[in-house]
Amino acid sequence: MPKLLQNQFLCLISATTLATTMVLTGCSSPSSDTANDTTNPGEATAQTMTEGEIANANFKDKLSGTALLNALKQGGYVIYICHAQTEKDYADQVTAVMGNCATQRTLSEVGWKQAKSIGEGFRKNAIPFDKVISSQYCRAWQTADLAFGKYEKNGDLNFPKAEDYSDQQIVDMKARLDPMLTAVPLQGTNTVIVGHDDLFEASTGIYPDPQGMAYVIKPDGSGNFDLVANVLPDEWLKLGGT
C-alpha cells in the first residue's frame, strides 16, 4: 500500500484509539464530534504515526509570533493552508463530482469558524496577499472564500482519481504542486494556496495535521523553497501578540 493511502488509513485508526490524548484532524481526519481541537497533534506517540505525521510533529518553526508577522508583512511568502475541518472523513476523490458539493466532504461548523478565524487574523494583522489559489474541491474553495473572500480554482491541486495512489501518481502530485510552492509572489505580497494533505506530503514529506494548519514557505527564486513555520487556524489572530 503506498505511503499516502497508509496515512489516511492510519489517521482513522489513530483517531479512534487516541481521541482523548491528541487531535488527528488532518485533511483526512475524524469527524468533528470525535476531534479535540485544542490538543497538540505532536502528542501522538511515534509508534502510531506515519513518516509524514512524524515530520509534521517534529517540525520546528524558524520564525514565530511577531517575527513571523513582520516577515509576512514584507511579503514574498507562499502560505499553504490545508482546508478547514470537515464533517466526516472518507476518501471522496474517486466518486466526487466537481461542482457538486453533495458528492464531497464538506466543512463542518468548526471548519467554518476556522476559516473565518484565519481570515480575521490576516485582516487584523494586515498581512498582504495577492493570489488565493484553491483546489476544485468544495471544502478547499469554501475555506478560501470564507477566509479571504476570493479564490481561483486550480485543478492541479486536486487529488488523482484513485484511492490507492501509484508511485507515479505521487510523483505527479509533487510535479504539479512544486511550481506553486517555488513561485515568488509579487513584491510586497504573499500567495495563499488552499489545498489538501496528500499533495503537500508528496512535495515536502510532511503530512499537515490538523485540518486548517498552514505552512509558511519562502521561495528562493531559484526553484527551491524553505519551510519557515506552521500556523494553526486560531494562531493567526495571535501573531501580533495582542
Task: Give an overview of the whole structure.
The termini are far apart. With 242 residues, the chain is an alpha/beta fold. It contains 7 helices and 6 strands, in the order αααβαβαβαβαββ. It has helices at 3-17, 51-58, 65-74, 109-124, 138-148, 167-182, 197-204; strands at 78-82, 132-134, 152-153, 191-195, 214-219, 225-231. The protein folds into 2 domains: 3-58, no CATH class; 65-238, Rossmann fold, CATH 3.40.50. The chain has a 6-stranded mixed beta sheet. The relative contact order is 0.21. It is globular, with a radius of gyration of 16 Å. Helix 4 (109-124) packs parallel to helix 5 (138-148) and helix 6 (167-182) crosses helix 7 (197-204). 35% of the residues lie in helices and 12% in strands.
